[in-house]
Design goal:
It is a single chain. The chain is built from 10 helices and 11 strands. With 302 residues, the protein is α/β, with parallel strands linked by helices. Strand 9 and strand 10 (222-228) form a beta hairpin. Helices cover 40% and strands 18% of the residues. Bound molecules: adenosine-5'-diphosphate and magnesium ion (MG).
């Protein structure tokens, strides 16, 4: 028997009751072909019922995985002009959260300024910063200035940080190798002022290697989630993860629910991507899984 949907339910897609949506200003790369940066985050936010206001830091044909790439990067002045116009129109105060991802050297300062500006208008605004700097197998892949921006400026201003294990090490000044050390490093970021830390791709000695593990940490909770590891590298999975996690936080879910739903949805999209033999995330094809995938089971850590 199919579940009965009232008209009220039909008018409220995604995670939000009718009329209770949230608005996210998402400042990230735009690619024409592919699902990375805003080209992953915006659709995921919208499908989850969030109003997504996209500002592109770069406008590119595609990401670096293809041999030819073309398109401009916006200058700090151009980006500031976009934010100034939104403010001059009197609608910047409608923003509930700022989402940032991979940064160019030009965009870091602007994102910091915008986060400050939004918080002045509304102290409850969430700044969700994905501190994209590198990973364990590649090391750092952003310029020194971007690293300094994340470790010194963003750390004091971000409400939600979504580092992978390598980035957690860079931000906390540690090299965590056990679950207890990952938790301690994440707590250090909480002590520095971030209310919620989502550590993606937790790999350590006391966790199995058949699963992808994520840990979410606040001042008084720590939760772990594990989904089966898939034998493929996905571009944009981190961008998708940050957007989905932020959407669940904005919908008012508690830490474990937000983490479990994020892991469940992201895994479902990745599994569908493999099933369809695609190289880019199958976001459109798997869109119902963004909302309807079962939450992955979570475990409290302390
Ligand atoms: N090969 C994979 N198998 C299963 N899950 C994956 C895989 N790659 C990514 N994910 C999921 O996507 C999330 C983000 O992954 P990734 O792009 O590696 O993040 P990051 O940019 O933080 O290193 C992971 O936490 C995991 O849940
Ligand atoms: Mg990441």
């Amino acid at each position: 028997m199919s579940p009965h949907l009232s008209n009220h339910d039909r008018s409220a897609p995604g995670l939000f009751k009718a009329g209770r949506s949230r608005t996210v200003l998402s400042i990230q790369s735009h690619v024409t072909v592919g699902s990375v940066g805003n080209s992953a985050a915006v659709f995921a936010l919208q499908r989850l019922g969030v109003e997504a206001w996209a500002v592109p830091t770069v406008v590119l044909s595609n990401d670096n995985a293809r041999p030819h790439v073309a398109g401009p990067a916006l200058t700090a002045d151009q980006l500031r002009g976009i934010i100034d116009a939104i403010a001059a129109n009197g609608v910047l105060s409608q923003v509930d959260a700022l989402l940032s991802g991979y940064l160019t050297a030009e965009s870091g300062q602007l994102i910091w300024e915008t986060a400050r500006r939004l918080k002045e208008l509304n102290p409850a605004v969430l700044f969700c910063c994905d501190p994209v700097m590198g990973d364990i197998d590649k090391g750092f892949y952003v310029p020194e200035g971007v690293r300094t921006f994340f470790c010194q400026q963003a750390l004091g201003l971000a409400d939600v940080l979504t580092p992978n294990l390598f980035e957690l090490g860079a931000l906390s000044g540690a090299r965590p190798t056990s679950l207890a050390e990952v938790l301690a490093a994440a707590r250090r970021l909480v002590e520095a002022g971030t209310s919620t830390v989502l550590v993606t791709s937790v790999e350590c000695a006391d966790l199995d290697r058949e699963h992808a593990h994520m840990m979410a940490v606040t001042a008084d909770r720590a939760v772990l989630v594990s989904t089966p590891l898939l034998d493929t590298h996905f571009d944009g999975s981190g961008d998708l993860t940050a957007a989905v996690f932020l959407s669940h936080l904005l919908a008012g879910q508690d830490l474990a629910a937000a983490l479990g739903h994020t892991a469940g949805s992201v895994h479902a999209v990745l599994a569908e991507t493999i099933r369809l033999g695609r190289t880019e995330l199958a976001l459109v094809q798997a869109q119902d899984r963004l909302v309807g995938a079962p939450a992955a089971p979570t475990a409290e850590l302390d």
